[in-house]
Structures are given as structure tokens and as C-alpha cells.
């Protein structure tokens, strides 16, 4: 019944999961950070606010590092599409390659304008410099839309026909791009990008506030990302709700795994926690009727269970279910955190002194990342054993090249090192900035943000340096 | 021209752009590697870092652009190349990660030890990456990558005289282009000692590259006679042009590399890349898969043509703006330099924040 599994499959899936799980955090920062930087930059220019400009400048340095690492880890993913999955790309590259090509365009724009923005602080006029950042933010969004459309296609393949030889015979690009899953996967991912970036950045300044630094620089550094993330969070719950119902309609096996539904029927309970052992739920808390109620607004809603799915087509249910619980749980907590911040504001309480609020905010970034990874596991593991849903099995897509086990080990070592070095480097930046601030008159190195003058940018009158 | 042909041409244009611009960035890493101790090598390394800094990510994107075109337009070719050449392309990907991240970390690394480590990783990976990419190219050109999932030999496909030669030629070409570009960069930075420094190195690299190319004729004749025939029959005008342009560039280098030297050097490289393309046409995998047989359905190619049009209208002028600003020294006040080096442990990189003069 269950076909033979190639030995490379587990290693290839692990390597893909590991490298993509790493890259997705950087991709989120690529979506969110440019917006945060531009907001700080615009506030700084409009209000002539040196603290905001200093934030923009420092965040852009962080953005430079994370973008560079994201660019190369993204390149690795492009390689891996062929290194690990020649059976997928060789057969379906023509069908769903186009969204990647569109993403390539956006990535090009992003790489060009991020360089102009990052290297242009001193010698471009403030206005031109700010404008040069806009394509960065826009192409981060555009790139996400296209690459997630490609993933959505794997969940809901559309826009092509297969010839008698099994090869793709015709392709309708717009139907590929706008497949059924695109409409709910894309906004879900974009909002995740803003939530991860916002809560992560806010975490840093929440810690600073807890340590008693509460000047305008730290307050603004907390407020900009936190407000953005807190706005995104409740919208995300609504989008996620739509997405879940989309999955119910489009991929019943995935939905059954998410909700741990083993037998088809109405009046399905919502199971929190727990795992599936031999078709029976072990552990966890069951709330009667709620899964049916959420899925179709009525306890009579019939939900397909895993029993209706052939054994060799079932995803591993327990991991999908626990990841789903983790994502929804953390997402809900992040909405509550945002409401907490709003309540403090309404009651005119200084959030800089609300220590428990700040403690919660300080861990919100890690929480957002965990939720992001959990959501990604739901999408990807929940699609198994298919790589192209109901059309191509992951096992049939994997490479026949020997050596994936070795590269997987190499990738784990390399990326673990890369992760640690990235954190150490960012921490080092933070320490150095703190040292600059401590040495600066007035407590912040504002002079530095404004370069050498009172004008909030570098020397307007360019030195008459030699030109090539 | 059919959509298949147009797509193949754009694919080759992307490869050419990557070879020239990405190649020069890799070559910068080569000169970083051989620049000597940290005191002696400080000034050339600073110049290299400033030259590469604002443009390397955009230049690197050509590689992604080409991978995407290949898998969308000629999917079976992509699958065959990536699976048979699993080893060298995995190593190239490793080199790409190490180089990009080390370059990004170097200015933010703390202390001299961290900077040295990042610098060493950057330099070494700048050399191994073009070697493995070149070896992979040699494997394809010499017909050692058949269609199918890992249908070719995982080792001899790229560990053979032709592949090793083209790998070395790739490293040499990168170093050559970089040195020629750096002469102009040094001149723009008013650093006459560095102009002389890179003039010497450009000359050496030009001679080494030329010698490797001549040696290569013999290697190809013995190891890949079909490729050698195609290069000398259909491809000869381009191969000859490369020789003429390369020699002219060398002569100009002996005359202190006036304006136009860069163009000649680039022309020599472009001619070789197109010589390969012409020799291999109309196959995407020589003697195994033609472009027409590998091509995706018309709908996919039409979609790609639209992408190309947008690229020509949006990406090309944007790249132009980037290069223009860079060449006019408007992209120097980067957040990475000044913000950090104002710190307590500015040390060696203090100098890197400022202009070289």
C-alpha cells in the first residue's frame, strides 16, 4: 500500500525544512523592516526629530545585515529546488516557475534600492533618500506575494493541463498566480511578516524600557514596531480564520490533521493539545461542538475525518495539530498583548512603567517567531505526502543524487553557526550603539545620526572630490 | 525569433551579466585573499570592500534570475543539471552563503579577530564559488550532463580536465575583471599607489587568464573534442574576438589603463561566454536535450517574455541609477561604516569609514 520511500527523502525534507525555516524569519524581516525604517525616517524628517532619525539609521544597519543573510539563504533555496527536488521542477517548473520569475523581479528591485538607501544616508538629499526606500518596502511585499503564490500553487495546483505523457502541456499564467489558495495564503504571510518584525523589534526596546531607559529614542523605538504589529495581529486572526475555512474546503486531509479529526461527522469537538495514536486521540482537552461551529457556524457542520483519507495519503496528524494549536494560541495571545497596550493608552497610563506589560512584550518577538514556524509546519507538513497536492508525491520529486544525508548535516552545522553569528553581530551592534550613546553629550548619539551638522542628513554641499 | 530563442538569449544575457558583474565581485574576494597581512593589506582591502559594498547584492541577483528562467523555461534541463551536478553546485551554494554573510558581517564584527575571521571566510569563499560554478559549466558544455534525475556521473561529470580547467579559468577571469575595475576605482578615490598596485595585478591576471585559455584549447581538443570543434567552427569569430579584445586590454594596461580598458576587458569575457552559447546552440544539454525539447509550454514562455519586458523597463534603468550613483561616489555614507566606527573599538576599520586618500 505505502510505496517504497527513497533513502534521500527524509534527509531532503529535513534539509528543505531547516533551510526554509531559517530563511522565513529573514524573509519576514525583509517585509517588515523597510516599513519600520521608512516610518521612523519620515517621522524624523517631518518633525525634525533626531531620535527618530537615529532609529531609522540604526534599523537600516540591521536591515542591511538581515537582508544580506536573507539574500544568500534565499539563493540556497533556489539551488535546493533543483538539488533536492528535480522531480518536482523538471516536471512542473514550467507550470509554477512563473511566480518565482515575478519574485525575481521584485528581488532585483529590492537589492538595487536597498543598496541606494543603505549607502545613501550621507550623500543623497533627505527627500531622495527617503524616496529610495519606498521601492524596498514595496518590492518586499511584491516578492512575498509572488513566492507565496508559488507555494499556494503547490497546495492548490491550477492553471495547467497535463499531456498524455504526463508532462505539462499548457499553462495559463494568471490562473497559476491566482490559484484558490493564493487569496488566503498571501495575506496571511504578509501579516505574519509585519507581526514577526514588529514584535521582535518591540521586544528589544521593551527590554530597554524594563532596564529604565525611557527617553524618547527608546519609547519611539518601542512604539513604532509595536503599534504596527498590534494592528496586524487582530487582522491576522480574521485572515487566519478565512484561511482555515479555505483549507477545510480545499484540503480536507490537512484540515482533519489540524483539528485532529479521525472520524468524519458533525458535532466535532475542538481539541486543544493531544496527539493521535492509532487513530485515537491521546491527551489534550476537548471542547464539544466547537470545531464544527467554527468551521461552518453550526454544530451540524460535517467535517471530513482522517478515516476518509486513504492511509497512504494522510499527513502526519499530531505534529500538524500541535503546530496549529501553537500558532493559534500564540496569535491570540499577541492580539491580547496589543489590546493590553491599547488599554494602557486609553487609561493614560505610561506603558514605560507597566512592568508586566513590558515583560510580556519582551517575549512577544520570540513568540511571533514560534507562531510563524508553527504555521509554516501546518502548511507544509499538512500537505504531505504530496508536494503538488493530489498530483505529485514528495517521494517522487526527490533527487536520486547520493549525498543528501551529508549535505543535510553540513547545512545544520552551517546554519546553526550562521544563526549564532547573526545574533552575536546584532548584539555587538547594540552594545556599540549603547557605548556611543553613553559617550555622547545629552545621552544619545544624535549628532551621529545627523552626521556632522544640524541638518538631519549628511553634508548637502558635496565635497568636490575627484570624480571618475 | 521564437519565444524559445528569445528566452534562451535572455538566459544567456543574464549569465553574461553574472559573469561580468558577479564575476568582478568574486574577483575582489580573490585580491582580498592575496592582499597579505592585515597592515599591508588594509588599503587594498578597504578599496575592494568599498567597491563591492553597494553593488554586490544586485549583481548576485543575476544568478537567481537565471536559475528561475532555467527552471521555468527549460525545466528538464534545470532538473538534470542540479541533480547530476549535486556535489559542485552544493559546494557553490555553500560558498555563496559564506561569502555573502561574511561580507555583511565583516564591518559589524567586533574586534580585529572577528573582522579577520569574517574577512578570511569572505576571501576564501570568493575563490571556491566561481571555481565550482565554472566546473559545473564545463560539465554541461562538455556534454557530461544527460537529461534525467541524476542520470550523469556524480563525480566524473565535473572532476575532469575540461571542468577543472574551466573552473580555474572562471577564477582567473574573475580576478582579471576585478583588478581592471579596481584600477578605475582606485583612480576615482585618488589613490595613485593603489592604481599602480591593481595595474600590476591586472596585468598578471590578464596574462594568466590568457595562458589558461590557450592551454584550454589543448585540453578541450583532448578531453572534449566535440566542444572544441564547435568552438572553433561556429564559435570561432567570438573566440577570436575574445583573443583580440583581451590582447588590446593587456596593451592598454601597460599604458596605465586609460578610459576604455574596462570595456575591452569586459568585451573579452562577453565574447567567450557567447562563444560557448553559440557553440552549444541549439542544445541546452549538448547531445542530450535541445532547447526546443526542453522548453515549457507556450503559456509559460509568454509569461516569461512579459517578465523580461518589465525587467527591461524597470530593472535595467534602476540598475543604471545604482551604478551611476556608485560611480559618482554618492553611495559612500553607508550606515555600516560611520555608525559603527564611531564606537570605542574602531581600531583598524576606523580607516575604512573614511575615504581612501
Task: Give me a quick take on this structure.
The complex is a heterodimer of chains A (468) and B (357). Chain A is mainly α and 468 residues long. In chain A, 69% of the residues lie in helices and 5% in strands.
Low-confidence runs of chain B: 334-357
The span between the termini of chain B is 51 Å
Oligomeric form: heterodimer
Outline the biggest β-sheet of chain A.
Answer: 2 strands, antiparallel
Q: H/E series of chain B, N to C?
A: HHHHHHHHHHHEEHHHH
Description:
The complex is a heterodimer of chains A (468) and B (357). With 468 residues, chain A is mostly helical. Chain A has helices spanning 8-46, 50-83, 86-119, 126-155, 173-177, 182-210, 216-250, 252-258, 290-296, 317-346, 355-383, 394-397, 404-439, 446-449; strands spanning 160-162, 168-171, 270-272, 275-277, 280-282, 285-287, 386-388, 392-393. In chain A, the strands form four sheets. In chain A, strands 1-2 form a two-stranded antiparallel ribbon. A two-stranded antiparallel sheet of chain A has the order 3-6. The N and C termini of chain A lie far apart (70 Å). In chain B, 77% of the residues lie in helices and 1% in strands. Chain B has 15 helices and two strands. Chain B has a two-stranded antiparallel sheet. In chain B, strand 1 and strand 2 form a beta hairpin. In chain B, helix 7 (161-188) packs antiparallel against helix 8 (192-223). Residues 334-357 of chain B have low confidence and may be disordered. The chains are: A mainly alpha (468), B mainly alpha (357). The interface between A and B is large, with 91 and 90 residues.
Amino acid at each position: 500500500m505505502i510505496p517504497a520511500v527513497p533513502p534521500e527523502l527524509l534527509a531532503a525534507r529535513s534539509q528543505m525544512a531547516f533551510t526554509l525555516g531559517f530563511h522565513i524569519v529573514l524573509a519576514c524581516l525583509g517585509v517588515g523592516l523597510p516599513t519600520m525604517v521608512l516610518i521612523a525616517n519620515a517621522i524624523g524628517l517631518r518633525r525634525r526629530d533626531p531620535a527618530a532619525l537615529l532609529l531609522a539609521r540604526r534599523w537600516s544597519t540591521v536591515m542591511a545585515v538581515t537582508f544580506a543573510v536573507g539574500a544568500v539563504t534565499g539563493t540556497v533555496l533556489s539551488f535546493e529546488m533543483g538539488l533536492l527536488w528535480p522531480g518536482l521542477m523538471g516536471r512542473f517548473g514550467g507550470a509554477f516557475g512563473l511566480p518565482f520569475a515575478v519574485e525575481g523581479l521584485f528581488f532585483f528591485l529590492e537589492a538595487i534600492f536597498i543598496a541606494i538607501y543603505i549607502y545613501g544616508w550621507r550623500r543623497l538629499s533627505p527627500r531622495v533618500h527617503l524616496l529610495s526606500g519606498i521601492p524596498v518596502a514595496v518590492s518586499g511585499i511584491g516578492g512575498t506575494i509572488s513566492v507565496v503564490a508559488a507555494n499556494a500553487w503547490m497546495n492548490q495546483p491550477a492553471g495547467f493541463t497535463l499531456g498524455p505523457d504526463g508532462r505539462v502541456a499548457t499553462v495559463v499564467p494568471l490562473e497559476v498566480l491566482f490559484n484558490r489558495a493564493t487569496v488566503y495564503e498571501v495575506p496571511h504571510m504578509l501579516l505574519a511578516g509585519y507581526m514577526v518584525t514588529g514584535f521582535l523589534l518591540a521586544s528589544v526596546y521593551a527590554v530597554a524600557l524594563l532596564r529604565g531607559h525611557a527617553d524618547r529614542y527608546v519609547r519611539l523605538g518601542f512604539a513604532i514596531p509595536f503599534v504596527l504589529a498590534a494592528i496586524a495581529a487582530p487582522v491576522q486572526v480574521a485572515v487566519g480564520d478565512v484561511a482555515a475555512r479555505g483549507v477545510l474546503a480545499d484540503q480536507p486531509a490537512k484540515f482533519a490533521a489540524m483539528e485532529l479529526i479521525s472520524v468524519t461527522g458533525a458535532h466535532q469537538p475542538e481539541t486543544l493539545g493531544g496527539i493521535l495514536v492509532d487513530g485515537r486521540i491521546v491527551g489534550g482537552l476537548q471542547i464539544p461542538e466547537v470545531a464544527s461551529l467554527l468551521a461552518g457556524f453550526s454544530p451540524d457542520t460535517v467535517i471530513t475525518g482522517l478515516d476518509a483519507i486513504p492511509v497512504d495519503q494522510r499527513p502526519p496528524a499530531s505534529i500538524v495539530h500541535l503546530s496549529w494549536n501553537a500558532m493559534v494560541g500564540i496569535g491570540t495571545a499577541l492580539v491580547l498583548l496589543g489590546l493590553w497596550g491599547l488599554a494602557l493608552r486609553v487609561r493614560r497610563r505610561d506603558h514605560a512603567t507597566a512592568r508586566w506589560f513590558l515583560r510580556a512584550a519582551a517575549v512577544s518577538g520570540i513568540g511571533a517567531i514560534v507562531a510563524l514556524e508553527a504555521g509554516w509546519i501546518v502548511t507544509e507538513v499538512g500537505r504531505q505526502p504530496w508536494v503538488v497536492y493530489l498530483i505529485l508525491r514528495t517521494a517522487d520529486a526527490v533527487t536520486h543524487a547520493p549525498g543528501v544525508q551529508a549535505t543535510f548535516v553540513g547545512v545544520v552545522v552551517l546554519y546553526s553557526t550562521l544563526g549564532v553569528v547573526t545574533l552575536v553581530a546584532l548584539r555587538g551592534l547594540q552594545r556599540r550603539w549603547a557605548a556611543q550613546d553613553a559617550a555622547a553629550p545629552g545621552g544619545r548619539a544624535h549628532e551621529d545620526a545627523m552626521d556632522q551638522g544640524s541638518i538631519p542628513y549628511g553634508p548637502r554641499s558635496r565635497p568636490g572630490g575627484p570624480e571618475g | 525569433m521564437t519565444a524559445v530563442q528569445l528566452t534562451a538569449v535572455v538566459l544567456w544575457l543574464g549569465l553574461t551579466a553574472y559573469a561580468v558583474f558577479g564575476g568582478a565581485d568574486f574577483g575582489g574576494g580573490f585580491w582580498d585573499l592575496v592582499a597579505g597581512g592585515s597592515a599591508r593589506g588594509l588599503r587594498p582591502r578597504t578599496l575592494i570592500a568599498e567597491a563591492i559594498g553597494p553593488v554586490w547584492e544586485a549583481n548576485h541577483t543575476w544568478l537567481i534570475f537565471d536559475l528561475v528562467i532555467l527552471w521555468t523555461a527549460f525545466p528538464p534541463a534545470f532538473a538534470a543539471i542540479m541533480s547530476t551536478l549535486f556535489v559542485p553546485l552544493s559546494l557553490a551554494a555553500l560558498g555563496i552563503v559564506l561569502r555573502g554573510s561574511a561580507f555583511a558581517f565583516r564591518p559589524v564584527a567586533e574586534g580585529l579577530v572577528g573582522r579577520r575571521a569574517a574577512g578570511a571566510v569572505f576571501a576564501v569563499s570568493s575563490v571556491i564559488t566561481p571555481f565550482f560554478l565554472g566546473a559545473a559549466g564545463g560539465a554541461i558544455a562538455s556534454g557530461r550532463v544527460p537529461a534525467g534525475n541524476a542520470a550523469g556521473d556524480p563525480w566524473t561529470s565535473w572532476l575532469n580536465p575540461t571542468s577543472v580547467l574551466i573552473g580555474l579559468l572562471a577564477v582567473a577571469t574573475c580576478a582579471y575583471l576585478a583588478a581592471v575595475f579596481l584600477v578605475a576605482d582606485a583612480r576615482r578615490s585618488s589613490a595613485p599607489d593603489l592604481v599602480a598596485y591593481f595595474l600590476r595585478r591586472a596585468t598578471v591576471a590578464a596574462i594568466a587568464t590568457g595562458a589558461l585559455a590557450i592551454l584550454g584549447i589543448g585540453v578541450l581538443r583532448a578531453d572534449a573534442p566535440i566542444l572544441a570543434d564547435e568552438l572553433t567552427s561556429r564559435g570561432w569569430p567570438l573566440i577570436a574576438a575574445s583573443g583580440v579584445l583581451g590582447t588590446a586590454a593587456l596593451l592598454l594596461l601597460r599604458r596605465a589603463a586609460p578610459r576604455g580598458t574596462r570595456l575591452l576587458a569586459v568585451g573579452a569575457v562577453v565574447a567567450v561566454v557567447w562563444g560557448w552559447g553559440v557553440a552549444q546552440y541549439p542544445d541546452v544539454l549538448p547531445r542530450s536535450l535541445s532547447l526546443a525539447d526542453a522548453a515549457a509550454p507556450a503559456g509559460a514562455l509568454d509569461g516569461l517574455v512579459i517578465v523580461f519586458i518589465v525587467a527591461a523597463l524597470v530593472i535595467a534603468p534602476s540598475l543604471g541609477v545604482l551604478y551611476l550613483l556608485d560611480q559618482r561616489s554618492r553611495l559612500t555614507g553607508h550606515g555600516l561604516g560611520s555608525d559603527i566606527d564611531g564606537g570605542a573599538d574602531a581600531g583598524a576599520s576606523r580607516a575604512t569609514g573614511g575615504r581612501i586618500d
